[in-house]
Amino acid sequence: MSKNTGGSSYDKKLWGGRFESGPTGDVIQFSTSIGIDWRLWEADIDGSIAHAKMLGKQSILTEQDAAEIVRGLEIVRKQIGEALAKGENPFPIDVEDVHSFIEIQLKAAIGVTAGRLHTARSRNDQVATAFRLTLAREGEALAKELSQLQAILLKRAEPEVETMLPGLTHFQHAQPVSLAHHLLAYFWMFQRDRERLSDWMKRVRVLPLGSAALAGTSFPLDRGFVAKELGFHRPCENSLDGVSDRDFALELLSGLSLMALHLSRMAEEFVIWSAPEHGFLELTDQVTTGSSIMPQKKNPDVSELIRGRTGRAIGALVQMATMMKGLPLSYNRDMQEDKEPVFYALDSVRASVRLTAFMLEGAKFHSGKMEASLSGDFSNATDLADDLAKKGVPFREAHEIVGHVVRHCLNSNLKLEDLSVEALKKLDTRFDETSKKVLLHRSVMEARTSEGGTGPSAVRTQIEKAKTVL
Ligand code: ARG
Protein backbone atom coordinates (compact mmCIF):
# COMPACT_ATOMS: atom_id res chain seq x y z
CA MET A 1 0.00 0.00 0.00
CA SER A 2 1.31 3.43 -0.78
CA LYS A 3 1.46 6.13 1.79
CA ASN A 4 -1.54 7.85 3.27
CA THR A 5 -2.36 10.82 1.11
CA GLY A 6 -5.54 11.66 2.96
CA GLY A 7 -6.52 14.82 4.76
CA SER A 8 -9.58 16.98 4.95
CA SER A 9 -8.74 19.65 2.45
CA TYR A 10 -11.83 20.80 0.58
CA ASP A 11 -9.42 21.47 -2.26
CA LYS A 12 -9.35 17.74 -3.06
CA LYS A 13 -12.52 16.21 -1.68
CA LEU A 14 -15.91 17.17 -0.35
CA TRP A 15 -16.27 15.19 2.86
CA GLY A 16 -13.08 15.51 4.97
CA GLY A 17 -14.50 16.98 8.19
CA ARG A 18 -15.43 13.79 9.98
CA PHE A 19 -12.12 12.05 9.28
CA GLU A 20 -8.80 12.23 11.03
CA SER A 21 -6.96 10.74 8.10
CA GLY A 22 -8.23 9.57 4.73
CA PRO A 23 -7.95 6.85 2.14
CA THR A 24 -4.50 5.74 1.03
CA GLY A 25 -3.20 6.15 -2.50
CA ASP A 26 -4.29 2.68 -3.57
CA VAL A 27 -7.75 3.18 -2.14
CA ILE A 28 -8.08 6.53 -3.82
CA GLN A 29 -7.01 5.03 -7.10
CA PHE A 30 -9.47 2.17 -6.64
CA SER A 31 -12.39 4.41 -5.88
CA THR A 32 -12.01 7.47 -8.10
CA SER A 33 -14.26 7.67 -11.13
CA ILE A 34 -13.17 10.92 -12.78
CA GLY A 35 -11.39 8.98 -15.52
CA ILE A 36 -14.85 7.83 -16.67
CA ASP A 37 -17.42 10.27 -15.31
CA TRP A 38 -15.67 13.38 -16.66
CA ARG A 39 -18.11 12.90 -19.54
CA LEU A 40 -20.86 14.15 -17.26
CA TRP A 41 -19.11 17.50 -16.83
CA GLU A 42 -21.38 19.71 -18.86
CA ALA A 43 -24.60 18.10 -17.63
CA ASP A 44 -23.27 18.46 -14.08
CA ILE A 45 -22.73 22.19 -14.62
CA ASP A 46 -26.18 22.55 -16.19
CA GLY A 47 -27.71 20.69 -13.26
CA SER A 48 -25.87 22.88 -10.76
CA ILE A 49 -26.94 26.06 -12.54
CA ALA A 50 -30.59 25.00 -12.49
CA HIS A 51 -30.28 24.04 -8.82
CA ALA A 52 -28.62 27.37 -7.89
CA LYS A 53 -31.25 29.38 -9.74
CA MET A 54 -33.98 27.50 -7.91
CA LEU A 55 -32.26 28.05 -4.53
CA GLY A 56 -32.23 31.78 -5.26
CA LYS A 57 -35.79 31.89 -6.50
CA GLN A 58 -37.00 30.05 -3.38
CA SER A 59 -34.97 32.38 -1.11
CA ILE A 60 -33.02 29.40 0.18
CA LEU A 61 -29.97 31.39 -0.92
CA THR A 62 -29.88 35.13 -1.50
CA GLU A 63 -30.37 36.13 -5.12
CA GLN A 64 -26.82 37.57 -5.08
CA ASP A 65 -25.24 34.31 -3.91
CA ALA A 66 -27.24 32.31 -6.45
CA ALA A 67 -26.19 34.68 -9.24
CA GLU A 68 -22.57 34.52 -8.09
CA ILE A 69 -22.67 30.72 -8.19
CA VAL A 70 -24.18 30.71 -11.67
CA ARG A 71 -21.49 33.16 -12.82
CA GLY A 72 -18.79 30.94 -11.30
CA LEU A 73 -20.18 27.82 -12.93
CA GLU A 74 -20.09 29.56 -16.32
CA ILE A 75 -16.42 30.37 -15.69
CA VAL A 76 -15.77 26.69 -14.94
CA ARG A 77 -17.69 25.70 -18.08
CA LYS A 78 -15.50 28.02 -20.13
CA GLN A 79 -12.29 26.75 -18.53
CA ILE A 80 -13.11 23.09 -19.12
CA GLY A 81 -14.50 23.73 -22.60
CA GLU A 82 -11.38 25.63 -23.66
CA ALA A 83 -9.02 23.00 -22.30
CA LEU A 84 -10.91 20.23 -24.11
CA ALA A 85 -10.96 22.25 -27.32
CA LYS A 86 -7.17 22.52 -27.10
CA GLY A 87 -6.94 18.76 -26.70
CA GLU A 88 -5.86 19.05 -23.07
CA ASN A 89 -7.22 16.94 -20.25
CA PRO A 90 -8.49 19.32 -17.57
CA PHE A 91 -9.55 16.53 -15.21
CA PRO A 92 -6.92 15.70 -12.56
CA ILE A 93 -6.66 12.02 -11.71
CA ASP A 94 -6.46 12.60 -7.97
CA VAL A 95 -9.94 14.08 -7.59
CA GLU A 96 -12.69 11.64 -6.63
CA ASP A 97 -15.20 12.38 -9.34
CA VAL A 98 -16.32 15.02 -11.79
CA HIS A 99 -18.80 16.50 -9.31
CA SER A 100 -16.07 17.10 -6.76
CA PHE A 101 -13.84 18.57 -9.45
CA ILE A 102 -16.42 21.07 -10.62
CA GLU A 103 -17.18 22.20 -7.09
CA ILE A 104 -13.48 22.58 -6.35
CA GLN A 105 -13.06 24.64 -9.52
CA LEU A 106 -16.06 26.71 -8.54
CA LYS A 107 -14.43 27.50 -5.21
CA ALA A 108 -11.26 28.50 -7.02
CA ALA A 109 -13.33 30.83 -9.22
CA ILE A 110 -15.59 32.53 -6.68
CA GLY A 111 -14.33 31.60 -3.21
CA VAL A 112 -16.41 30.55 -0.21
CA THR A 113 -19.81 31.27 -1.78
CA ALA A 114 -19.20 28.09 -3.78
CA GLY A 115 -19.85 26.18 -0.56
CA ARG A 116 -23.53 27.23 -0.68
CA LEU A 117 -24.29 25.40 -3.92
CA HIS A 118 -24.61 22.00 -2.29
CA THR A 119 -27.49 23.19 -0.06
CA ALA A 120 -30.42 20.73 -0.27
CA ARG A 121 -28.48 18.46 -2.60
CA SER A 122 -26.43 15.30 -2.41
CA ARG A 123 -24.04 13.77 -4.89
CA ASN A 124 -26.53 10.91 -5.05
CA ASP A 125 -29.27 12.95 -6.71
CA GLN A 126 -26.66 15.07 -8.47
CA VAL A 127 -24.98 12.13 -10.22
CA ALA A 128 -28.27 10.52 -11.19
CA THR A 129 -29.36 13.83 -12.73
CA ALA A 130 -26.12 14.44 -14.61
CA PHE A 131 -26.06 10.86 -15.90
CA ARG A 132 -29.66 11.03 -17.13
CA LEU A 133 -29.09 14.37 -18.80
CA THR A 134 -25.89 13.21 -20.49
CA LEU A 135 -27.52 10.03 -21.77
CA ALA A 136 -30.60 11.86 -23.01
CA ARG A 137 -28.35 14.17 -25.02
CA GLU A 138 -26.19 11.37 -26.36
CA GLY A 139 -29.30 9.34 -27.12
CA GLU A 140 -30.59 12.17 -29.26
CA ALA A 141 -27.35 12.30 -31.21
CA LEU A 142 -27.51 8.55 -31.72
CA ALA A 143 -31.10 8.75 -32.95
CA LYS A 144 -29.99 11.32 -35.51
CA GLU A 145 -27.24 9.03 -36.74
CA LEU A 146 -29.67 6.15 -36.97
CA SER A 147 -31.97 8.21 -39.12
CA GLN A 148 -29.04 9.13 -41.36
CA LEU A 149 -28.32 5.44 -41.82
CA GLN A 150 -31.99 4.87 -42.63
CA ALA A 151 -31.84 7.67 -45.20
CA ILE A 152 -28.91 5.99 -46.91
CA LEU A 153 -30.69 2.63 -46.89
CA LEU A 154 -33.66 4.30 -48.54
CA LYS A 155 -31.47 6.10 -51.06
CA ARG A 156 -29.70 2.88 -52.01
CA ALA A 157 -32.95 0.90 -52.09
CA GLU A 158 -34.95 3.19 -54.38
CA PRO A 159 -33.09 2.44 -57.64
CA GLU A 160 -33.00 -1.31 -56.87
CA VAL A 161 -36.71 -2.14 -56.76
CA GLU A 162 -36.40 -4.30 -59.88
CA THR A 163 -33.03 -5.82 -58.96
CA MET A 164 -33.39 -9.48 -58.04
CA LEU A 165 -31.31 -11.51 -55.65
CA PRO A 166 -31.90 -14.87 -54.03
CA GLY A 167 -33.99 -14.59 -50.89
CA LEU A 168 -32.80 -17.19 -48.40
CA THR A 169 -34.16 -19.35 -45.64
CA HIS A 170 -31.81 -21.76 -43.86
CA PHE A 171 -29.17 -20.00 -45.97
CA GLN A 172 -30.57 -21.86 -49.02
CA HIS A 173 -32.11 -20.20 -52.04
CA ALA A 174 -35.81 -19.86 -51.24
CA GLN A 175 -37.50 -17.31 -53.49
CA PRO A 176 -36.12 -14.37 -55.45
CA VAL A 177 -36.54 -11.00 -53.75
CA SER A 178 -35.96 -7.41 -54.74
CA LEU A 179 -32.69 -5.91 -53.52
CA ALA A 180 -34.65 -2.85 -52.40
CA HIS A 181 -36.89 -5.09 -50.33
CA HIS A 182 -33.88 -6.72 -48.69
CA LEU A 183 -32.28 -3.36 -47.84
CA LEU A 184 -35.56 -2.01 -46.51
CA ALA A 185 -35.81 -4.90 -44.06
CA TYR A 186 -32.92 -3.19 -42.25
CA PHE A 187 -34.61 0.17 -42.58
CA TRP A 188 -37.48 -1.14 -40.42
CA MET A 189 -35.13 -2.70 -37.86
CA PHE A 190 -33.43 0.67 -37.39
CA GLN A 191 -36.83 2.34 -37.30
CA ARG A 192 -37.78 0.19 -34.31
CA ASP A 193 -34.43 1.01 -32.72
CA ARG A 194 -35.17 4.69 -33.12
CA GLU A 195 -38.69 4.26 -31.74
CA ARG A 196 -37.25 2.47 -28.73
CA LEU A 197 -34.94 5.42 -28.13
CA SER A 198 -37.74 7.92 -28.35
CA ASP A 199 -39.92 5.90 -25.98
CA TRP A 200 -36.98 5.70 -23.56
CA MET A 201 -36.70 9.50 -23.68
CA LYS A 202 -40.00 9.70 -21.77
CA ARG A 203 -38.40 7.89 -18.84
CA VAL A 204 -34.82 9.11 -18.92
CA ARG A 205 -35.92 12.73 -18.74
CA VAL A 206 -37.35 12.38 -15.23
CA LEU A 207 -35.58 14.45 -12.60
CA PRO A 208 -33.93 12.88 -9.52
CA LEU A 209 -32.57 16.21 -8.23
CA GLY A 210 -34.35 17.20 -5.04
CA SER A 211 -34.25 13.63 -3.74
CA ALA A 212 -31.10 14.74 -1.88
CA ALA A 213 -29.20 11.85 -0.30
CA LEU A 214 -32.23 9.53 -0.26
CA ALA A 215 -35.11 11.01 1.70
CA GLY A 216 -35.73 14.45 0.27
CA THR A 217 -34.92 17.64 2.16
CA SER A 218 -36.38 20.11 4.63
CA PHE A 219 -35.68 23.04 2.28
CA PRO A 220 -38.66 24.42 0.33
CA LEU A 221 -37.58 23.29 -3.15
CA ASP A 222 -39.30 23.90 -6.45
CA ARG A 223 -38.41 20.69 -8.27
CA GLY A 224 -40.77 21.43 -11.14
CA PHE A 225 -38.75 24.55 -11.90
CA VAL A 226 -35.48 22.59 -12.03
CA ALA A 227 -37.08 19.92 -14.22
CA LYS A 228 -38.22 22.57 -16.67
CA GLU A 229 -34.83 24.33 -16.71
CA LEU A 230 -33.14 21.06 -17.65
CA GLY A 231 -35.74 19.94 -20.18
CA PHE A 232 -36.95 17.06 -18.00
CA HIS A 233 -40.63 16.09 -18.16
CA ARG A 234 -41.20 16.09 -14.40
CA PRO A 235 -39.53 15.43 -11.03
CA CYS A 236 -39.40 11.78 -9.96
CA GLU A 237 -42.15 10.75 -7.57
CA ASN A 238 -40.04 9.00 -4.92
CA SER A 239 -36.70 10.14 -3.53
CA LEU A 240 -35.47 6.61 -2.72
CA ASP A 241 -36.25 5.53 -6.26
CA GLY A 242 -34.80 8.79 -7.57
CA VAL A 243 -31.30 8.18 -6.25
CA SER A 244 -31.18 4.43 -6.76
CA ASP A 245 -32.94 3.77 -10.07
CA ARG A 246 -30.69 2.86 -12.98
CA ASP A 247 -33.40 1.39 -15.23
CA PHE A 248 -32.75 4.22 -17.66
CA ALA A 249 -29.19 2.99 -18.20
CA LEU A 250 -30.25 -0.65 -18.48
CA GLU A 251 -32.99 0.25 -20.93
CA LEU A 252 -30.54 2.14 -23.05
CA LEU A 253 -28.13 -0.79 -22.96
CA SER A 254 -30.84 -3.18 -24.05
CA GLY A 255 -31.74 -0.83 -26.91
CA LEU A 256 -28.06 -0.57 -27.83
CA SER A 257 -27.75 -4.36 -27.78
CA LEU A 258 -30.59 -4.66 -30.27
CA MET A 259 -29.00 -2.03 -32.50
CA ALA A 260 -25.71 -3.91 -32.34
CA LEU A 261 -27.52 -7.13 -33.25
CA HIS A 262 -29.15 -5.51 -36.25
CA LEU A 263 -25.88 -3.95 -37.35
CA SER A 264 -24.08 -7.27 -37.02
CA ARG A 265 -26.61 -9.07 -39.21
CA MET A 266 -26.12 -6.49 -41.91
CA ALA A 267 -22.34 -6.61 -41.46
CA GLU A 268 -22.45 -10.39 -41.84
CA GLU A 269 -24.34 -10.06 -45.11
CA PHE A 270 -21.77 -7.55 -46.36
CA VAL A 271 -19.05 -10.08 -45.57
CA ILE A 272 -20.90 -12.84 -47.44
CA TRP A 273 -21.95 -10.69 -50.36
CA SER A 274 -18.44 -9.35 -50.88
CA ALA A 275 -16.85 -12.82 -50.88
CA PRO A 276 -15.81 -13.83 -54.41
CA GLU A 277 -18.18 -16.84 -54.34
CA HIS A 278 -21.04 -14.34 -54.29
CA GLY A 279 -19.59 -11.12 -55.64
CA PHE A 280 -22.91 -9.35 -55.04
CA LEU A 281 -21.25 -6.38 -53.44
CA GLU A 282 -18.01 -4.50 -53.71
CA LEU A 283 -16.86 -2.43 -50.76
CA THR A 284 -14.70 0.63 -51.27
CA ASP A 285 -10.98 0.66 -50.53
CA GLN A 286 -11.75 2.99 -47.62
CA VAL A 287 -13.48 0.28 -45.63
CA THR A 288 -11.38 -2.73 -46.57
CA THR A 289 -7.80 -3.73 -45.90
CA GLY A 290 -5.16 -5.94 -47.46
CA SER A 291 -3.21 -8.82 -46.07
CA SER A 292 0.42 -8.60 -44.96
CA ILE A 293 1.18 -11.86 -46.73
CA MET A 294 -1.42 -12.43 -49.47
CA PRO A 295 -1.19 -9.61 -52.00
CA GLN A 296 -4.52 -10.41 -53.66
CA LYS A 297 -6.64 -9.90 -50.53
CA LYS A 298 -9.27 -7.26 -49.95
CA ASN A 299 -10.78 -7.97 -46.57
CA PRO A 300 -14.06 -6.53 -45.25
CA ASP A 301 -12.51 -5.62 -41.88
CA VAL A 302 -14.92 -2.85 -40.99
CA SER A 303 -17.90 -5.18 -41.43
CA GLU A 304 -16.15 -7.83 -39.40
CA LEU A 305 -15.38 -5.38 -36.60
CA ILE A 306 -18.97 -4.16 -36.51
CA ARG A 307 -20.06 -7.79 -36.28
CA GLY A 308 -17.42 -8.49 -33.63
CA ARG A 309 -18.27 -5.49 -31.48
CA THR A 310 -21.81 -6.67 -30.84
CA GLY A 311 -20.40 -8.35 -27.75
CA ARG A 312 -19.49 -4.98 -26.31
CA ALA A 313 -23.09 -3.84 -26.06
CA ILE A 314 -24.44 -7.17 -24.86
CA GLY A 315 -21.55 -7.53 -22.43
CA ALA A 316 -22.23 -4.05 -21.05
CA LEU A 317 -25.90 -4.92 -20.52
CA VAL A 318 -24.99 -8.07 -18.60
CA GLN A 319 -22.32 -6.21 -16.59
CA MET A 320 -24.73 -3.49 -15.55
CA ALA A 321 -27.60 -5.84 -14.74
CA THR A 322 -25.25 -7.95 -12.62
CA MET A 323 -24.06 -4.83 -10.79
CA MET A 324 -27.63 -3.75 -9.97
CA LYS A 325 -28.99 -7.13 -8.98
CA GLY A 326 -29.79 -7.45 -5.31
CA LEU A 327 -28.73 -3.92 -4.31
CA PRO A 328 -30.73 -2.74 -1.31
CA LEU A 329 -32.28 0.72 -1.44
CA SER A 330 -31.13 3.33 -1.89
CA TYR A 331 -27.76 4.57 -3.28
CA ASN A 332 -24.82 2.17 -3.02
CA ARG A 333 -21.32 2.91 -4.18
CA ASP A 334 -21.55 -0.12 -6.50
CA MET A 335 -23.62 2.17 -8.68
CA GLN A 336 -20.61 4.28 -9.51
CA GLU A 337 -19.81 1.35 -11.83
CA ASP A 338 -22.80 2.31 -13.99
CA LYS A 339 -21.11 4.72 -16.36
CA GLU A 340 -18.26 2.78 -17.88
CA PRO A 341 -20.34 0.03 -19.55
CA VAL A 342 -22.87 2.53 -20.85
CA PHE A 343 -20.29 4.83 -22.43
CA TYR A 344 -18.39 1.84 -23.78
CA ALA A 345 -21.49 0.42 -25.47
CA LEU A 346 -22.73 3.81 -26.61
CA ASP A 347 -19.45 4.76 -28.29
CA SER A 348 -19.13 1.38 -29.90
CA VAL A 349 -22.67 1.32 -31.31
CA ARG A 350 -22.53 4.94 -32.46
CA ALA A 351 -19.33 4.33 -34.38
CA SER A 352 -20.82 1.18 -35.89
CA VAL A 353 -23.94 3.03 -37.03
CA ARG A 354 -21.79 5.73 -38.62
CA LEU A 355 -19.49 3.28 -40.34
CA THR A 356 -22.32 1.10 -41.60
CA ALA A 357 -23.79 4.17 -43.25
CA PHE A 358 -20.41 5.09 -44.73
CA MET A 359 -19.86 1.55 -45.99
CA LEU A 360 -23.30 1.29 -47.54
CA GLU A 361 -23.07 4.67 -49.18
CA GLY A 362 -19.98 3.71 -51.17
CA ALA A 363 -20.77 0.05 -51.82
CA LYS A 364 -21.26 -1.11 -55.38
CA PHE A 365 -24.02 -3.65 -56.03
CA HIS A 366 -23.35 -6.19 -58.77
CA SER A 367 -26.89 -6.92 -59.87
CA GLY A 368 -25.69 -9.12 -62.75
CA LYS A 369 -24.09 -11.53 -60.28
CA MET A 370 -27.18 -11.47 -58.07
CA GLU A 371 -29.47 -12.36 -60.98
CA ALA A 372 -27.07 -14.92 -62.41
CA SER A 373 -27.04 -16.79 -59.12
CA LEU A 374 -30.76 -17.42 -59.48
CA SER A 375 -30.33 -19.46 -62.62
CA GLY A 376 -31.28 -23.10 -62.05
CA ASP A 377 -31.69 -22.59 -58.29
CA PHE A 378 -35.30 -23.89 -58.15
CA SER A 379 -36.40 -20.78 -56.25
CA ASN A 380 -39.25 -20.71 -58.79
CA ALA A 381 -40.64 -24.08 -57.66
CA THR A 382 -43.24 -22.66 -55.26
CA ASP A 383 -44.83 -20.77 -58.10
CA LEU A 384 -45.17 -23.91 -60.19
CA ALA A 385 -47.02 -25.54 -57.30
CA ASP A 386 -49.11 -22.37 -56.85
CA ASP A 387 -49.98 -22.60 -60.55
CA LEU A 388 -51.44 -26.09 -60.06
CA ALA A 389 -53.22 -25.00 -56.91
CA LYS A 390 -54.81 -22.11 -58.81
CA LYS A 391 -56.06 -24.73 -61.30
CA GLY A 392 -57.83 -26.57 -58.49
CA VAL A 393 -55.20 -29.11 -57.42
CA PRO A 394 -55.01 -29.28 -53.61
CA PHE A 395 -51.75 -27.50 -52.62
CA ARG A 396 -50.32 -30.56 -50.83
CA GLU A 397 -50.77 -32.63 -54.01
CA ALA A 398 -49.33 -29.81 -56.13
CA HIS A 399 -46.31 -29.66 -53.81
CA GLU A 400 -45.75 -33.40 -54.30
CA ILE A 401 -46.03 -33.14 -58.10
CA VAL A 402 -43.57 -30.23 -58.30
CA GLY A 403 -41.24 -32.16 -55.99
CA HIS A 404 -41.13 -34.86 -58.66
CA VAL A 405 -40.54 -32.25 -61.36
CA VAL A 406 -37.57 -30.88 -59.37
CA ARG A 407 -36.18 -34.40 -58.96
CA HIS A 408 -36.58 -35.00 -62.68
CA CYS A 409 -34.61 -31.79 -63.41
CA LEU A 410 -31.87 -32.72 -60.95
CA ASN A 411 -31.55 -36.22 -62.44
CA SER A 412 -31.37 -34.89 -65.99
CA ASN A 413 -29.26 -31.83 -65.18
CA LEU A 414 -31.95 -29.38 -66.27
CA LYS A 415 -33.00 -26.00 -64.98
CA LEU A 416 -36.62 -25.77 -63.94
CA GLU A 417 -37.08 -22.61 -66.00
CA ASP A 418 -35.71 -24.38 -69.08
CA LEU A 419 -38.43 -27.05 -69.20
CA SER A 420 -40.61 -26.62 -72.29
CA VAL A 421 -44.40 -26.64 -72.07
CA GLU A 422 -44.34 -30.08 -73.68
CA ALA A 423 -41.85 -31.41 -71.14
CA LEU A 424 -44.00 -30.00 -68.34
CA LYS A 425 -47.16 -31.52 -69.79
CA LYS A 426 -45.44 -34.88 -69.91
CA LEU A 427 -44.83 -34.60 -66.18
CA ASP A 428 -48.42 -33.55 -65.44
CA THR A 429 -51.17 -32.91 -67.94
CA ARG A 430 -52.48 -29.91 -66.04
CA PHE A 431 -49.37 -27.87 -66.81
CA ASP A 432 -49.80 -25.38 -69.69
CA GLU A 433 -48.47 -22.08 -71.13
CA THR A 434 -49.18 -20.24 -67.87
CA SER A 435 -47.09 -22.77 -65.96
CA LYS A 436 -44.18 -22.00 -68.22
CA LYS A 437 -44.59 -18.24 -67.66
CA VAL A 438 -44.69 -18.42 -63.87
CA LEU A 439 -41.32 -20.15 -63.92
CA LEU A 440 -39.47 -16.99 -64.88
CA HIS A 441 -37.68 -15.69 -61.77
CA ARG A 442 -38.82 -12.19 -62.56
CA SER A 443 -42.45 -13.33 -62.68
CA VAL A 444 -41.94 -15.05 -59.35
CA MET A 445 -40.76 -11.79 -57.78
CA GLU A 446 -43.33 -9.63 -59.56
CA ALA A 447 -46.19 -11.84 -58.47
CA ARG A 448 -45.60 -11.17 -54.77
CA THR A 449 -47.75 -8.07 -54.59
CA SER A 450 -49.27 -8.76 -51.18
CA GLU A 451 -48.85 -5.91 -48.68
CA GLY A 452 -45.27 -5.97 -47.41
CA GLY A 453 -44.25 -8.41 -50.14
CA THR A 454 -41.32 -8.20 -52.56
CA GLY A 455 -43.28 -7.46 -55.75
CA PRO A 456 -42.11 -4.12 -57.16
CA SER A 457 -45.53 -2.52 -56.73
CA ALA A 458 -45.62 -3.52 -53.05
CA VAL A 459 -42.02 -2.38 -52.57
CA ARG A 460 -42.85 1.01 -54.05
CA THR A 461 -45.69 1.38 -51.56
CA GLN A 462 -43.25 0.36 -48.83
CA ILE A 463 -40.77 3.03 -49.93
CA GLU A 464 -43.49 5.68 -49.65
CA LYS A 465 -44.23 4.49 -46.10
CA ALA A 466 -40.54 4.54 -45.23
CA LYS A 467 -40.33 8.13 -46.43
CA THR A 468 -43.17 9.20 -44.18
CA VAL A 469 -41.59 7.75 -41.01
CA LEU A 470 -38.18 9.24 -41.69
N1 ARG B 1 -19.06 9.26 -8.10
C1 ARG B 1 -20.21 8.81 -7.42
C2 ARG B 1 -21.07 7.92 -8.35
O1 ARG B 1 -20.93 8.01 -9.52
C3 ARG B 1 -21.02 9.96 -6.94
C4 ARG B 1 -21.91 9.64 -5.80
C5 ARG B 1 -21.13 9.48 -4.58
N2 ARG B 1 -22.02 9.37 -3.47
C6 ARG B 1 -21.58 8.88 -2.33
N3 ARG B 1 -22.48 8.76 -1.41
N4 ARG B 1 -20.36 8.48 -2.16
O2 ARG B 1 -21.86 7.13 -7.89
Secondary-structure blueprint:
Layout: H1 25-31, H2 34-37, H3 41-57, H4 63-85, H5 98-110, H6 123-157, E1 164-169, E2 172-178, H7 179-204, E3 206-207, H8 223-229, E4 234-235, H9 239-244, H10 247-274, E5 281-282, H11 301-308, H12 310-324, H13 339-362, E6 364-365, H14 367-372, H15 381-390, H16 395-411, H17 421-427, H18 433-438, H19 441-447, H20 456-469
Parallel strand pairs: 3-4
Antiparallel strand pairs: 1-2, 5-6
Helix pairs in contact: 3-4, 3-6, 3-8, 4-5, 6-7, 6-13, 7-10, 7-20, 10-11, 10-12, 10-13, 12-13, 15-16
Bound molecules: arginine.
Description:
With 470 residues, the chain is mainly alpha-helical. The chain folds into 3 domains: 23-119, Fumarase/aspartase (N-terminal domain) (Fumarase C, Chain B, domain 1); 124-163 and 178-223 and 234-366, Fumarase C, Chain A, domain 2, CATH 1.20.200.10; 381-469, Fumarase/aspartase (C-terminal domain) (Ribonucleotide Reductase Protein R1, domain 1, Orthogonal Bundle). It is built from 20 helices and 6 strands. β3, α8 (223-229) and β4 (234-235) form a beta-alpha-beta unit. α3 crosses α8. The two termini are 57 Å apart. The relative contact order is 0.10. Residues 1-9 have low confidence and may be disordered. Arginine (ARG) binds next to α6.
